[in-house]
Write a structure and sequence with these properties.
Layout (H helix, E strand, L loop, with lengths): L1 H38 L8 H72 L3 H21 L2 E3 L13 E8 L8 E6 L2 E3 L2 E4 L1 E7 L7
Parallel strand pairs: 2-6
Antiparallel strand pairs: 1-4, 3-6, 4-5
Length: 209
């Protein structure tokens, strides 16, 4: 009887030790994981972030520089436009002034011709004076690029240089021939500024047989 009791007590001690070890293992498991989590150090930022920030700052600086250059260029262009417009206006005024001064000379000659005409007895001298004035007047026009358009009676009609104000049916001259010149035409620097006003021949159609 005593032997069996000793064995049972031995088994009971072993069982109690096993339970104690299991309980310690259960208690120590989560705490160990927590300790591991606490001891885990946070990841450090990559070293490349600093380079990215410096590159972004350089881009901003370059952008500001380009904007400043653009504003300066726009201001310079606006000043150039105003200066050019002002210069063109001054040039136009200078040209107009010179033209008027040239024609003032013709006006002076007209005044002298009128005074002479009032006391002149020879009509030939008056006609000659008027012819000289006409030549002087047109020489000024030629000086600034104005030319007479070639337009003669019985010449060929050119729609680019002549304007037909009347068609005359006739068989005396070929069709599309200038019959009469009513007003002289002019071109400025090879550009027609006023076509010659003419009448043009039109041959009548022959009656059908």
């Amino acid at each position: 009887m005593k032997k069996s009791t000793k064995k049972e007590s031995t088994h009971s001690k072993e069982d109690s030790q096993t339970q104690a070890e299991n309980s310690k293992a259960r208690n120590s498991g989560p705490s160990t994981e927590k300790a591991d989590e606490k001891t885990t150090e946070p990841e450090k930022e990559p070293s490349g972030s600093g380079a990215e920030k410096s590159q972004e700052a350089a881009c901003r600086e370059e952008n500001e520089l380009l904007k400043d250059q653009l504003f300066r260029l726009a201001a310079d262009f606006e000043n150039f436009r105003k200066r050019t417009a002002r210069q063109m206006e001054e040039n136009q005024k200078a040209v107009l002034e010179q033209v008027l001064l040239d024609f003032v000379e013709v006006t002076d000659n007209f005044d002298r011709a009128l005074k002479s005409a009032r006391t002149a007895e020879d009509m030939g001298s008056i006609v000659s004076g008027i012819e000289q004035l006409s030549k002087q007047f047109f020489s000024i026009l030629e000086k600034y690029g104005l030319e007479r358009i070639k337009c003669e009676k019985e010449g060929e009609f050119d729609p680019h240089k002549h304007e037909a104000v009347q068609h005359i049916e006739t068989c005396e001259v070929p069709d599309n021939t200038i019959v009469e010149v009513y007003k002289q035409g002019y071109s400025l620097n090879e550009k027609v500024v006023r076509p010659a006003l003419v009448s043009v021949a039109r041959n009548p159609e022959e009656p059908e047989k």
